[in-house]
User: What shape does this take?
Amino acid sequence: RNYYGLITVYMYEEGSTTYELKRGNYVEVLSRDLSDKPELVKQIVSKKLRYGDLGKIFSAYNTAVEQTSSE
Assistant: This one.
């Protein structure tokens, strides 16, 4: 049997180099890169939002940015 699935890989850019966002680095990277939304960073650092929640984290960040820009 062959099973096929999709794996989402999150990437980030630092300078001119692209890296994979991994379990071991996501707190550090997102704390720095999402620092304009301190409440979201607080949830990441406290592990209320975890690596498995990356899609939810980015969705929440995008929503917060949209709300800020429409004010």
In short: The first strand starts at residue 11 and ends at 14. The helical segments are 26-33, 38-45, 54-69.
